[in-house]
Design a protein that fits this description.
By secondary structure, the protein is an alpha+beta fold. Helix content is 36%, strand content 10%. The model has no long low-confidence stretch (mean pLDDT 93).
Length: 224
């Protein structure tokens, strides 16, 4: 378990912590929710799904993140009233994420923090917070993903009938943006611009035509 140097964020539970019979005392009150999300990450995110529409894991990075011990879980109890309050809660985790090793290099893309909100019964605040912060996080080279039992209404990229963001506990996930993230960013000019600034010279081959079209759209004056 990792403890924030100033105590401004709740502890981060590491994959190794789940190997023991009990989690550390500091997070024991939420052990059922933490174990449920940890199991979901390994089985669902790290596994294949018949409705996904493509081969491979739901999230291709999860298994390696777990194996490298870079998949961290934290719990924020209580019920934030609105996206602004929830965004303020996330601020310390966002900054802590930037300080955690590895900060650079190929291994950094596997670093992930999941912040669980087990007391939330109104899941829409999770969706609205993600929408509120998406542009800011992409400018920083980060992705913020929303998951909850609703599930969120966002459709799968390869199967529009599939709702892939289902989780047993409401949560927001922080990770580094990677070149293959363009399909999650293509519908907003601000996030497209952030992607191009960071990855314009190393776009994956299968995305080049789509990224080029988005870049052309941005360079065309409105109304022309």
């Amino acid at each position: 378990m990792l403890v924030h140097p100033t105590g401004q964020a709740h502890p981060l539970v590491e994959p190794a912590d789940f190997a023991g019979p009990r989690l550390p005392e500091e997070v024991a009150a939420h052990e059922p929710q933490l174990r449920a999300v940890f199991a979901w990450a390994g089985e669902y995110l790290g596994g294949a799904h018949p409705d996904l529409g493509r081969r491979g894991a739901v999230c291709p990075f999860t298994d390696t993140s777990l194996q490298r011990g870079l998949f961290y879980l934290s719990v924020r109890a209580g019920t934030p009233r609105d996206p602004d309050e929830l965004a303020a809660l996330l601020l310390h985790y966002r900054d802590w994420f930037a300080e955690l090793e590895p900060r650079t290099g190929p291994g950094a893309q596997f670093k992930t923090i999941l912040v669980l909100f087990p007391d939330l019964a109104e899941f829409g605040v999770v969706d609205r917070t993600q929408e509120l912060l998406k542009a800011e996080y992409t400018r920083l080279g980060l992705m913020l993903g929303e998951f909850h039992p609703g599930p969120p209404q966002k459709a799968g990229l390869w199967n529009p009938a599939f709702r892939p963001l289902h989780s047993p506990v409401p949560l927001l996930a922080i990770r580094h943006m990677v070149p293959t993230d363009f399909p999650f960013l293509r519908d907003d000019d601000t996030t497209v611009a952030a992607y191009l600034q960071r990855f314009g010279g190393r776009v994956p081959t299968h995305l080049r035509d789509e990224v080029r079209a988005a870049a052309d759209r941005l360079s065309t004056p409105a109304g022309s």
